[in-house]
Amino acid sequence: MPPLVRRKLFVLVLALGAALAAAAVAYAGNGGFAPVTPHSPNAHRINDAYLWVAVFTGVVLVVVESALLLFVFRYRGRGRPRDAEGPQVHGATRLELIWTAIPVVMLAAIAAFVFYELPGIQDIPSAKAEGGPLQVRIDAHQFYWQFKYPNGAVSINELHVPVNRVVQVNIHSEDVDHSWWIPALQGKFDAIPGSPSKTWFKADKAGTYRGQCGEFCGVYHATMRASVVAQSRSEYESYLSSLSDPLELGGQEWRGACAQCHALDGSGGYGPDIKNNSLLIQSQGLRTLITQGLNQAPPLANYMPPVARGWTDAQVTALLAYLKARVYKGPASGG
Fold first, then answer.
1. Is the separation of the CB atoms in 223 and 260 below 8 Å?
2. Looking at the whole model, is its pTM more than 0.85?
3. Which terminus of the chain faces fewer neighbouring Cβ atoms within 10 Å, N or C?
4. Residue ranges of the domains in the chain?
């Protein structure tokens, strides 16, 4: 194949590959180039900052790559020996000042805009008209999220909030490092043992907003998902009332804390089959297992994290009631 044809074929294949890559990105969410659609004021500001940075970096990419391609084709060898040196140019002071000043100005513009947006992202609104922000405590566990509401009610993996209400979430970890992140509502905030953090959001539309633990927290990290359900005030109050039913709370605990590893029917997923294990209905034995874990010291052949560390007596009782009613398949056993 002649060299000229080979070069043209290479350029064609390269162009087709770039087009296919761009097409794949375009089919992703928001055209593949932007974060998910924001539904909280602070998330809007994060999105604005992202787009502002993207504009400058996009301009740099186009200008630099265009100049590179222009020079590659305009000043290509044209048969000159490969070891031939080009003309040596010295003393382009004005050009050097220009290409130094432009990046400085661009970085200053980016920094100024980000610092302008930052207070609206991190500062929690006073929400005086609403009696202050709705305070929710988040406890991160391996491998689920627990939410505690102002009235003491608890839910697992699914946080319910009123729409158009400022919600302050106070983030704690019961074991290892995690990271709370619902992209449509706010940025990513770490959950570090002994070092609580906090953030806020105000969902502007009813719906379910999904997220994922943003910090690798163990072997089953990928299962640690979370949802925020924004709903009307009446629906929110009704949901909180439903959590007073031990079977409702126990069911959430089973699905969120236990079935992550042992499957919903207890038949074993990541962990062993437990549906016929009488320990499930032995109050003291179950409490010890879920609050202290199993095989914490090497060798960790049957390691189980203390999934219920920090639970109240009511939570343990609710899980026990649910296991007896819906999960345990073996003969009755005392204990």
1. yes
2. no
3. N
4. 15-68+96-123, 132-242, 246-327
Residue 234 CA, distance from chain mean position: 29
156: left (phi over 0), alpha (psi -120 to 50) or beta: beta
Please compute, for residue 284, the number of CA atoms within 13 A of its CA located in the half-sphere on the CB side.
Answer: 2
Write down the architecture of domain 246-327 according to CATH.
Orthogonal Bundle (1.10)
Q: Which two tokens stand for residue 191?
A: 């959950």
Provide CB contacts within 8 A for 231, sequence distance 6+. 160, 161, 162, 163, 206, 239
Strand partners, 229: 160, 208
User: Which among 132, 154, 135 is positioned nearest to 145, based on CA atoms?
Assistant: 154
Q: Residue 187: how many CB atoms within 10 A of its CB?
A: 18
DSSP state of 282: -
Q: Please, are residues 261 and 333 in contact by the beta-carbon 8 Å criterion?
A: no
| Contact of 154 with 188, CB cutoff 8 Å | no
Interval 104-131: pLDDT, tens: 999 999 999 999 999 999 999 999 998 9
Which residues neighbour 37 within 8 Å (Cβ) at sequence distance 6 or greater?
30, 184
Whether the per-residue pLDDT at 16 is higher than 60: the answer is: yes
Q: What is the per-residue pLDDT for 48?
A: 94
Tell me the C-alpha to C-alpha distance, in Å, between residue 140 and each of 48, 186, 216, 307, 324: 29, 17, 13, 10, 26
**Cβ(244)–Cβ(206) under 8 Å?**
no
